[in-house]
Design goal:
Elements (H helix, E strand, L loop, with lengths): L2 H12 L1 H18 L1 H8 L2 H21 L3 H10 L4 H14 L2 H9 L1 H50 L10 H41 L18
Helix pairs in contact: 2-4, 3-4, 4-8, 4-9, 6-8, 7-8, 8-9
Length: 227
């Protein structure tokens, strides 16, 4: 990238882009809170968990991008290495995957509002914690979360009983297949990204050390002039 474009892009990333993220996040949250969209997403069990949950987290992540620097600094003081935020996100998602929670959210507006707020805060926590966590903490969090998603997916897909009274058994099986497939796909994508990071880091280290991967050909010996 040439120097001609670096300054405008830096101004874009540091100026109006965070505000735009906040506006988009607020619009998504308002749209999800409308009765029509709630009914459409919660009509099916797989849409309830596979579509509505990530959309609320996306809204929270976008809103987190618009937080002022002072507030982000205050949050970072109790979120060292992103551990607190990731612990909250893991605990919230673990609770919200319980079948009884889906039933109660459909029956009680207060629990529905609590569920949506928890998902919104989960998106905020992930946005503010992911980069600060580092590769080891990220792998630990994602490994546990994806394993839980695969186990819950298998439970939904193979259970002969309806785990949610509000949804049919076929819809429950469909959700189980979705959760299992998404967990497996994310695991493969994460492993591929980690391998790419390792290869890139080794290439950068060789470049910094001045030792390229292929050895240079030896220089020919200097010829002697006959006397």
């Amino acid at each position: 990238m040439t120097a001609r474009w670096r300054a405008p892009l830096a101004a874009l990333a540091g100026g109006w882009l965070p505000a735009h993220q906040g506006v988009v996040g607020l619009m998504i949250a308002i749209a999800l809170a409308l009765p029509a969209s709630r009914h459409a997403l919660e009509l099916s069990m797989w849409r309830h968990m596979v579509l509505q949950y990530p959309l609320w987290m996306l809204a929270g992540a976008l809103l987190a991008g618009a937080l002022p620097a002072r507030m982000r600094g205050a949050i970072a003081r109790w979120n060292a290495s992103g551990i607190t935020g990731l612990l909250y996100a893991g605990a919230a998602l673990s609770v919200l995957m319980i079948p009884r929670v889906l039933d109660l959210a459909l029956l009680h507006p207060g629990i529905e509002a609590t569920k949506c707020a928890a998902l919104l805060l989960t998106g905020v926590a992930l946005r503010l914690s992911w980069q600060a966590a580092g590769l080891v903490v990220q792998s630990f969090f994602l490994g546990n979360l994806l394993l839980m998603g695969a186990v819950v997916g298998q439970l939904y897909a193979n259970s002969p009983l309806r785990l949610c009274n509000a949804y049919l058994l076929g819809d429950q099986e469909r959700l189980g297949r979705w959760l299992t497939g998404i967990s497996a796909a994310l695991a493969v994508a994460w492993i591929a990204q980690v391998m790419w990071w390792i290869v890139r880091r080794e290439a950068d280290a060789r470049t910094m050390a001045g030792t390229p991967g292929t050895p240079a050909a030896p220089e020919p010996p200097a010829s002697r002039t006959p006397q």
